[in-house]
Protein: FAD binding domain protein
Organism: Aspergillus sclerotialis
Amino acid sequence: MTIPRLNGSRPRTGTTKGRSALLPIHRMLNNKNQAQIPYTVYEQDLTNTRKTNWSMGLHWALAPLRELVPENILSHIQETQVDPHVPTHETDRLPLYNGQTGELIKELVSRKFYRLRRDKFRNMLMTGIPVQWGKQLCDITYSPDGERVTAKFTDGCEDTGRILVGCDGPHSSVRRVLVGDEKAKVTPIDFASTMCFTQHTREHALFLRASPHNPLYQVAAHPDGYCAWLSLHDGDDIDHPENWTFFHYISYPEPKSQINNRTNAEHVAYQKQLASIFVDPWNSVFKWMKPNHPVWYSKLRNWDPSLPEHRWDNKLGRVTLAGDAAHPMTFQRGQGLNHAIMDAYTIKKAIDCFWVSPELGKRADAVGEYEKEMIARGGEEVRLSEQNSIAIHDWRRVMESPSIKSGLALERDN
Ligand SMILES: Cc1cc2nc3c(=O)[nH]c(=O)nc-3n(C[C@H](O)[C@H](O)[C@H](O)COP(=O)(O)OP(=O)(O)OC[C@H]3O[C@@H](n4cnc5c(N)ncnc54)[C@H](O)[C@@H]3O)c2cc1C
């Protein structure tokens, strides 16, 4: 979260919070060619290291990212990839296999596809941007004159400014304050997954990346109703395959109402059981995982910002949402980061529009316009991603899934 201040007697605030979605905004706010908009970034984590990390595909949002991040910083994007040694081509192909037979079903063609490791990418975006670590937002108040918003943190600190952009992830506290605890809850769908990050012997690691397997990523749908993913997560140490980390999961049907009480060991055992009906590389990568290897269970969930009951009052444009805070979605279509960057791009344009104007109506209009576009685009993607997650687990409908029919591009660009 960020609090900008303008010179003069009246403090003005652009408050943004969160990480990857928000950091491009700050990059742009920092840009010397733009109006100098002061800000502060707040993050609940105590430091820049967190235990959960994953990798994400950046594809259609490269263009807005270029508008936000100066070239001398963005030029390091190649180094933030899961394997910085593999050059990124103008087009890319993500192979989708039949997990039972190994037959190639389709290659999902994409524009330039950066496979980013979240921690490295975030560090790149944070270059030169001060972050207030260990600040967990818990409440928001507004001045009676319609001008200011105040963010309150659990440690008793607070900060005041002109706009607060909540980019605080899928379980956003800002969203909770805006629509209430019940309405802000993410909605589970009838699938779950278990995220596994594993290292292997040199021989096994080389096998997992050797032909016919894709050295970076592949996905498989199984006719029995499962979806498997395997990708490289960390290939930094080019000479030591035993130091490479692989990211893999098999997602499976699980009724939305079911509370999953499996222990870590039971999650691993269940993933191994599912993998036993898959061909390689899934069969082997799960077989080689240790029975007590720490894994991360994840129910598939989303939150559609376009539902009427999810509408929030932006208090004359003083508060809004972006990224997963606004539209958490299921991950199989690989879209959340791309939309988060697009949000950063559009909210930045909105801030530029009202920043130098003293009229409160300008801010209300600009933020209203941002929300109109973001809610329509994000809401559509939440629904498409859900359809995609359902179809990929239903053999009769796999070919109808949005990713197969339309690829990974933004729906309106197809
Ligand atoms: C396994 C997996 C694979 C994915 N693959 C892809 C992909 O291929 N392509 C793609 O586009 N997307 C992908 N995504 C989605 C993508 O990771 C998210 O959409 C993206 O990270 C959202 O960024 P964000 O900044 O909005 O939220 P986050 O990355 O969740 O960051 C939110 C931040 O806010 C902080 N925070 C939370 N609450 C508070 C609070 N109260 N006060 C202060 N700080 C707070 C959190 O600590 C966190 O640092 C994937 C997601 C997963 C889980």
